[in-house]
């Protein structure tokens, strides 16, 4: 007799390490907008005081509560008051990216990295130090306006963890060259000089230095980085969209792939499993009313440059003046996308899935009456993600499965109110590929060894030769 599906349901397997953190669980951005993921499913936060037109960053403690936030101009403490010495720039929140990174080896010191405005030589990239042990635990900017480099970088900055799990790689890009500036941040601090990696296509001069805007983003595992240039409408040579390999042991940037740009590329995000690259445009300068802003995906899973280049899928296009802003991979494994002057964020619900199966939803998350602009929170990408599935309670009113713990480390239990005999559990990834199978299972509580599975979404199916009950996925 052909086995039938007894119990298909959705499961997220997460491999939590001792360093599991919640530093990106609360976001402040836009026009005093905010959201938190402390229960995994996002909830709007109406109490933010940030004015985050573009760049913004928030850092949280180990429980996911806000320590401080910045728009690249001011630094606010958790009471939404500007910190002492908290005016760090006069530029406003008009740079594409800023980032907060922890000081390696310290539990109270943090760096804020601010960049140059549109590659202007008169503007410098700087680092500022926040000391949370000061001001009765509310924090103080203990050092500010420290020049990071004599080079003139773009508005883009990103960071990822070193392979040792403590040090940090901080990456910027020099304007009008193909130089990546890579800083190895250690407990000794930020080095006085970066490592220079002249690789790939450089940014060419254009009107108002518009292509110095855009983003650098790392894949969650740090093995890839992508960069774009926010080109102008009447100059195709001003555009840039490139993908690189990154070595988290050495900081080496290599193996460039020039991807087909969409003109005016602005935001980027990788999927949780590092196999998809998403991008979106903000066509801001010298474009016409007939132009559209584009949201797109590339599939990186083949590793073959020509295949990656040809994998581009357009997920959405919206007419100017509507525009996409930043996109950010959340703690729940979904990608959130800002739209200027909107009280909703767009969401890519299953970003590991290729093509339309990624389930892009316009106006999916309501901000509780606040509005987004062009920025979202920028922090080192999570490598572990929380569980946003709804627990399954019953199958056709008869079988009541319980899975615990979920998310899991390496072992989970499936508890049933029925006894199964000679059953098989199959675990497939989001593309339907079988990644693990356990056979000859008996009883009402089944142990499932998940060791070796990377932390992404999976579908688990329980098959029993005598069974025929079915149950749908719940979210």
Describe this structure in words.
This protein has 475 residues and is mostly beta strands. The chain folds into two domains: 4-14 and 388-464, Immunoglobulin-like; 26-366, 7 Propeller (Methylamine Dehydrogenase, Chain H). It is 1% helix and 44% strand. Strands 1, 30, 31, 32 and 33 form a five-stranded antiparallel β-sheet that branches. 47% of the residues are buried. The model is unreliable at 1-20, 390-397 and 466-475 (pLDDT under 50).
CATH fold-level label of the largest domain = Methylamine Dehydrogenase, Chain H
Protein structure class:
mainly beta
Largest sheet: 5 strands, antiparallel
Helix content: under 10%
The total count of strands amounts to 33
The appropriate CATH architecture of the largest domain is 7 Propeller
Q: How much β-strand is present in the residues?
A: 35-45%
Annotation field: number of helices: 1
What is the CA-CA span between the terminal residues? 32 Å
CATH class annotation of the largest domain:
Mainly Beta
Radius of gyration: 23 Å
- Poorly predicted ranges (pLDDT <50, ≥5 residues)? 1-20, 390-397, 466-475
**What does the overall shape look like?**
globular
- Kindly state the mean pLDDT as a whole number? 88
How many structural units, i.e. domains?
Answer: 2
- Any idea what the CATH superfamily of the largest domain is called? YVTN repeat-like/Quinoprotein amine dehydrogenase
């Amino acid at each position: 007799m052909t086995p039938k599906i007894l119990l298909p349901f959705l499961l997220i397997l997460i491999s939590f390490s001792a360093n599991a953190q919640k530093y990106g669980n609360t976001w402040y951005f836009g026009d005093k907008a905010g959201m938190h993921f402390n229960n995994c499913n996002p909830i709007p936060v109406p109490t933010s005081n940030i004015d985050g037109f573009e760049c913004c960053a928030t850092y949280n403690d180990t429980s996911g509560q806000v320590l401080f936030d910045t728009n690249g101009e001011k630094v606010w403490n958790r009471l939404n008051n500007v910190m002492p010495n908290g005016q760090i720039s006069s530029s406003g929140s008009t740079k594409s990216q800023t980032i907060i990174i922890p000081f390696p080896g310290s539990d109270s010191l943090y760096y804020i990295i601010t960049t140059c405005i549109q590659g202007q030589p008169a503007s410098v990239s700087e680092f500022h130090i926040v000391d949370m042990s000061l001001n009765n635990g509310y924090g103080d900017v203990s050092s500010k306006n420290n020049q990071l480099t004599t080079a003139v970088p773009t508005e883009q900055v990103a960071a990822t963890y070193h392979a040792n799990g403590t040090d940090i790689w901080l990456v910027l890009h020099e304007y009008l060259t193909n130089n990546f500036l890579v800083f190895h941040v250690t407990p000794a601090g930020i080095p006085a000089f970066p490592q220079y990696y002249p690789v790939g296509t450089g940014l060419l001069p254009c009107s108002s230095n518009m292509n110095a805007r855009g983003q650098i983003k790392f894949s969650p595992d740090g093995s890839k980085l992508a960069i774009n240039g926010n080109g102008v409408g009447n100059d195709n040579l001003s555009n840039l969209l490139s993908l690189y390999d990154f070595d988290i042991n050495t900081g080496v940037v290599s193996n460039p792939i020039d991807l087909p740009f969409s003109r005016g590329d602005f935001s980027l995000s990788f999927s949780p499993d590092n196999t998809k690259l998403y991008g979106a445009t903000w066509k801001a300068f010298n474009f016409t009313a007939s132009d559209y802003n584009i949201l797109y995906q590339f599939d990186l899973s083949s590793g073959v440059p020509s295949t990656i280049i040809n994998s581009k899928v357009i997920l959405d296009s919206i007419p100017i003046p509507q525009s996409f802003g930043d996109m950010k991979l959340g703690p729940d494994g979904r990608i959130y996308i800002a739209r200027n002057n909107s009280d909703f964020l767009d969401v890519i619900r299953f970003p590991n899935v290729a093509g339309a199966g990624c389930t892009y939803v316009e106006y999916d998350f309501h901000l509780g009456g606040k509005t987004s602009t062009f920025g979202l929170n920028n922090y080192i990408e999570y490598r572990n993600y929380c569980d946003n599935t709804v627990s399954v309670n019953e199958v056709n009113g008869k079988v009541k499965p319980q899975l615990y713990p979920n998310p899991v480390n390496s072992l989970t239990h499936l508890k049933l109110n029925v006894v199964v005999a000679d059953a098989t559990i199959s675990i497939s990834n989001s593309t339907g590929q079988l990644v693990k199978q356990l056979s000859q299972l008996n009883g009402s509580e089944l142990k499932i060894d998940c060791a070796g599975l990377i932390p992404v979404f999976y579908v688990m199916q329980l098959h029993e030769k005598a069974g025929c009950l079915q149950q749908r996925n719940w979210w």
